[in-house]
Amino acid sequence: NAGVMQNPRHLVRRRGQEARLRCSPMKGHSHVYWYRQLPEEGLKFMVYLQKENIIDESGMPKERFSAEFPKEGPSILRIQQVVRGDSAAYFCASSTGAGINQPQHFGDGTRLSIL
Amino acid sequence: DAKTTQPNSMESNEEEPVHLPCNHSTISGTDYIHWYRQLPSQGPEYVIHGLTSNVNNRMASLAIAEDRKSSTLILHRATLRDAAVYYCILRDADGANNLFFGTGTRLTVIP
Questions:
Q1: Which residue of B3, B47, B69, B81 has the fewest CB atoms within a 10 Å radius of its CB?
Q2: Which of A91, A100, A109 sits opposite B32 (nearest CB)?
Q3: Each residue of A1-29: pLDDT tens digit?
Q4: What angle do CA B64, B68, B72 make, to 5 degrees?
Q5: CB contact, 8 Å: A69 with chain B?
């Protein structure tokens, strides 16, 4: 049973470039969450998606960041015109449902470094 | 989501039990208590959750106080692989679907 798969594991970009992070949820999971962990800090929620819908993007920066979870294929977190402050570990999680007794299963993250 | 309070760090000797405390004095009647842990360079890992009764699974046990204002995650026999940051998280029916990670407890296991 494959867990949550994130790729790439490491991504290096220069300032001003675009970063695309991919997340394939566990089989049968239709709920996806993205979190960001800045160096030496805790994880912070960014966005919650179900297939083809953004449910909650209250933690997402208003500019340069977008997320999608198409009907087919992985969820994508896109960061346009990256800046040094975007350097962080980005984690994706998935669950079977949105209930509060539903665990979220995490991938091992994408570590984004901005030169 | 109601807030939780955990010690910043704890140490345990290998093969001994570990009791990780969490205070949540403002917990409401419908809040679930969840525990996750994050090993170095990995994503968080679900450990256990409960509402009122104590819970056991293959990873750990969760002891919930009768008034639910505190809980304790019990690792019955610590191994070096259990060295991680442990997060106690409350989830309520009226809250957001996301998890709120505080600072957690960094557990060091001494060989």
A1: B81
A2: A100
A3: 579 999 999 999 999 999 999 999 999 89
A4: 35
A5: no
Q: How far does B109 lie from chain A, in Å, by closest CA?
A: 20
The span from the CA of A66 to the CA of A85, in Å, is 16
Question: Among residues A89, A99, A96, which one has the least CA distance to residue A32?
Answer: A96
Contact B87, B101 (CB under 8 A): yes
Q: What is the DSSP string of A78-115?
A: EE-S--GGG-EEEEEEEES---TTPPPEE---EEEEE-
Mean pLDDT for chain A overall: 94
Residue with tokens 């919930």: B64
What would the pLDDT profile of A42-98 be if each residue is shown by its tens digit?
899 999 999 889 999 999 999 999 999 999 999 999 999 999 999 999 999 999 987
List CB contacts (< 8 A) between B103 and chain A.
42
Name the residue among A46, A33, A98, A102 with its Cα closest to residue B32.
Answer: A102
- Calculate the alpha carbon distances from A111 to A9, A15, A16, A35, B79 in Å: 6, 16, 17, 12, 27
Contact A43 B99 (CB under 8 A): yes
**C-alpha distances out from residue B105 to A32, A36, A91, B1, B101, Å:** 26, 19, 20, 19, 11
CA closest to A58 among chain B residues: B96
Check if A39 contacts B (Cβ < 8 Å).
no
Q: Provide the phi-psi class of A73: left if phi over 0, else alpha when psi is between -120 and 50, else beta.
A: left
Look up residue A22 and give its two tokens. 């991919």
